[in-house]
Amino acid sequence: MDANPGTTSATPAGALPEESRKRRFVIPERFFRLQSYVALVLVFLAAIVFSPRRGGETVFLNPENLLNILRAVSEIGILAVGMTFVILIGGIDLSVGAVLGLSATGAASLLMVQDWGVLPTVLVVLAIGLVFGATQGYLSARLGIQSFIVTLAGLQVARGLARIWSGGQGVPLAYGDGPDVAPTSFALLNSRTFNGTIPIPALIFVGVAVIALIVVRYSVFARHVYAIGGNERAARLSGIRVNRVKVAVFAIAGLLAAVAGIIHAGQLNQGSPNDGLGYELDVIAAVVIGGTSLMGGVGSVSGTLAGALLLGILNNILALNNIDSNVQLLIKGIIIVAAAGVQAFRSQQR
Amino acid sequence: MMSRRATVSRRQLAFRITAVAAVFTLAPACGTESDAPGVGSDGPQSQECGGTDGEYLIGMSQANVAEPYRQQMDDDIDAAAAEVDQFEVVFADAAQDNAKQVSDVENFLTQNIDLLIISPNEAAPLTAVVERVYNEGIPVIVLDRKVEGDAYTQFIGANNVEIGRAAGEYVSTELLPDGGNVVEIKGLPGSTPAQERSDGFAEGIADNQGVTIIADGTGDWLREKGQSQFEAILQAEPSIDVVYSHNDPMAEGAYLAAESAGRAEEMDFVGIDGLPIPSGGLKAVEEGRLSATFIYPTGGQEAVDTAEQLLIECADVDKELALETQLITSENAAEVYAENSTG
User: Fold this and answer.
1) pLDDT digits (tens, 9 = 90+) for A105-130
2) Can you list the pairs that A202-205 forms with residues at least 24 positions away whose Cβ atoms lie under 8 Å?
3) B246 is a domain residue
4) Is the residue at B231 inside a domain?
5) Chain B interface with A: residues with Cβ < 8 Å
6) Residue B1 domain flag
7) Which residue from A202, A204, A248, A254 is spatially nearest to A97, judged by alpha carbons?
């Protein structure tokens, strides 16, 4: 797991001597850094305890069930990786759900209506996500508009573009050879590999996660991200090209939203302008539960992954126990507040 | 492929082996097993029927309980299943998200349900997972909205074209036999029911040349949009005789607009749905705001009846069960409300 470089190098907390802390009870910083993993383990154990049993088998631990969870969180997880970078620089991206919808609609339309092949479709849709995100980053960095506002506008624009592209309708996918059907290879996204066990979207999610963890651990770019989130002025004065990093961060978020959108279309055999409605909120929840501070500079990709998995396990175990859907909303709300509460405690302690 | 059940019947096992084998021969190059529709085999019907001694877990996957009609559907199923000792029903709500509904159905499979009732959010995205359930030999009852293909046991739904036609005939024969001006408040553009309720209505009024649709508004199924759209229409049209709305909430919104303009007495309001809840169309007719509504049945009771036939009586059922609408006027509104209210 990554070492969370930001908390030690870019933020003032790590630099303070131990005596200057005024609190009587000092919870070690290490605990907070591990907060989301502790929470993940607790939820996992709780899921085992509360899981229904059938003939001596714990239903929750059934490998197929665990893989279902991984498949179900793959889209939110991929979006959350991009969102983590955005939140680390102290920004927010409200457009990810809409860009997912735009990408899903675009992919389905290109495959079905324009009769494109899989590779050009994927490349063009990824480029759309990248450019969309980069544009938002540029507007936010250059014009100094808060990213909340820019991406709020971006959300509307992406939904509007998706509706215009497909005439407001969902585009169902049908597979086969010839005109008016999509190439069969796109159906891979709706399939499982290794003898029909591992869902492809889960594999892509794991791949994205691994790349992100490597980037965070070893790249200069990630250090710049943490530096900007910790203190933008100081980062600028120390020679970091802040605007360039910001544009790149939003471009990554847009690109990953496009990846999730393509998966969405493949998994559901349809691309619709309404896809991904409200996903941005689940994504932000995953990032917050993962211990990343909305103030920027503090947090980690691995924490976000833990947060996304935690939400997935929670959804699953609530469903397996047939908890009323209205009560499920309450439980999720309480967990988000609890995670944010621990974060608030952490920053007070500084 | 993992065995999901504690006991797998020989027939099911045989099917799984052939299915896996078939997929491998179909796609030897990529070596994956596809969940896509069209791949796999035609549904083997190994019924889960165990007679009156059995106990059955029924999963009900709802598209979105935020819509009153769908909450009513769940309530109807709950009430009907409470009458059958052998049934336990578990509910899931997809909150209008196709991806969530796929997960909901997967979770039902994990829970080993004996029968699936599903009211799909949209057809194409739910087809594959419904097919998967059906191919495991679990009966599937599809409610209100269809899935693609025929990998389900029974579809239960009302015909929106018929309901629209019934509304059109009622307007042209009862309300406006001598002709008049109609305003149509439409549901969400692009949604099938909005299109069908509109087409049916046009057919229904076709015989009476005097009835003309002079204006239409788009209310997106929502009360507040029905109100604002009809406010604008009221400004433009001095003479309106009937307001035909694709659902009751929009009709109520239009009524509010007319009332605040002081013109509610000049016209009749006709809606569709007729839900037996305090905020529903039956009450609106009973209290005189709407002149008529047409019941769009939820099919909840019928779904449980079908489940009883399949699981307890071991009977065969028809592939499709069409539900009848019912005209509600001030004469029968209170009576029908009392009959159908589950609250």
Assistant:
1) 999 999 999 989 999 999 999 999 99
2) A202/A67, A202/A70, A202/A71, A202/A74, A204/A74, A204/A78, A204/A259, A204/A263, A205/A70, A205/A73, A205/A74, A205/A75, A205/A77, A205/A78
3) yes
4) yes
5) 1-2, 4, 6, 20, 23, 30-39, 65, 90-93, 95-99, 102-104, 106-107, 110-112, 122-125, 127-128, 148, 189-190
6) no
7) A254
Separation of alpha carbons B40 and B25, rounded Å: 11
Q: Provide the CATH number for the domain around residue B246.
A: 3.40.50.2300
Dist. CA B140–CA B321, nearest whole Å: 13
Q: Which two tokens stand for residue B182?
A: 């109609």
**Quick one: B177 and B291 in the same domain?**
yes
In a domain, residue A92? The reply is yes
Specify if B266 maps to a domain.
yes
Q: What is d(CA B112, CA B306) in angstroms, rounded to the nearest whole number? A: 19
Report ipTM (2 d.p.). 0.80
Distance, in angstroms, between B80 CA and closest chain A CA?
Answer: 19
- Say if CB B310 and CB B46 are below 8 A apart: no
Q: For the stretch B222-240, what's the b/e string if a residue is b when 16 or more beta carbons lie within 10 angstroms of its beta carbon?
A: bbebbbebbbebbeeeeeb
| β-strands A270-271, A171-172 pairing | antiparallel
pTM score of the predicted model: 0.80
Residue A5 covered by a domain: no
**Tens digit of pLDDT for each residue in B147-192?**
989 999 999 999 999 999 999 999 999 999 999 999 999 998 777 7
For residue B314, the SS3 value is coil
Q: How far is it, in rounded angstroms, from Cα A298 to Cα A291?
A: 8
Question: In angstroms, what separates the C-alpha of A159 from chain B's closest C-alpha?
Answer: 15
Q: Indicate whether B216 and B183 sit together in one domain.
A: yes
Q: Compute the residue count for chain A.
A: 350
- Give the SS3 label for residue A268: helix
Domain that holds residue B307: 10-14+46-152+299-324
Q: Based on the structure, what is the number of domains in chain B?
A: 2
